[in-house]
Amino acid sequence: AQSVTQLGSHVSVSEGALVLLRCNYSSSVPPYLFWYVQYPNQGLQLLLKYTSAATLVKGINGFEAEFKKSETSFHLTKPSAHMSDAAEYFCAVIGANDYKLSFGAGTTVTVRA
Amino acid sequence: EAGVAQSPRYKIIEKRQSVAFWCNPISGHATLYWYQQILGQGPKLLIQFQNNGVVDDSQLPKDRFSAERLKGVDSTLKIQPAKLEDSAVYLCASSLDTAGITDTQYFGPGTRLTVL
Description:
The structure holds 2 protein chains of 2 kinds.
Chain A: E1 3-7, E2 10-14, E3 19-26, E4 32-38, E5 44-50, E6 56-58, E7 64-68, E8 73-78, E9 87-94, E10 102-103, E11 107-112
Parallel strand pairs in A: 2-11
Antiparallel strand pairs in A: 1-3, 3-8, 4-5, 4-9, 6-7, 7-8, 9-10, 9-11
Chain B: E1 5-7, E2 10-13, E3 19-24, E4 31-37, E5 44-50, E6 53-56, E7 65-68, E8 75-79, E9 88-95, E10 106-107, E11 111-115
Parallel strand pairs in B: 2-11
Antiparallel strand pairs in B: 1-3, 3-8, 4-5, 4-9, 5-6, 7-8, 9-10, 9-11
């Protein structure tokens, strides 16, 4: 079965600072990788997805993620954090032989003024 | 475009009682999913429907959980009898099913279940 590991359950950043959320996956090749965001009391919203095209994927709200096969990583970044980025972020994977979307445990982001 | 609708948003029950959740997917979406999200964890797929047929229910605890999507549109998820460990948020999602497994899943706001 495919799985993802999100390093760090909580990340705190200052407004305007870089946001970096780490995700490593274990999967047979090729994996399909996703980042979702969940605001309080809301459902998950897709930020971006990697489906074996360009390795640098740009998403909504200024987020992007880079697929690095050699490192089995799909880290999410945003150059400058905004207060509205405070939320929980989930990395997820679908493997080539397992068609289920498997989520990591999530990383909660807080943004300090 | 209306999103995925779920009701109720919150439910509190005693253990051994039964409960049902309702989901109405985005219009025209063929695939519907139910996920369980326990506090501090990522969502876990319980069951996936394509139209009114079950695609995957391998992680559904069938001794107490059941789900149906009779007309290929809305769906209900039932728990009978509930246990304390069923306390979680139950998320419904739907997808259009044009790009296969990489289709974007659109999530509803969830139903937060507390079992006392």
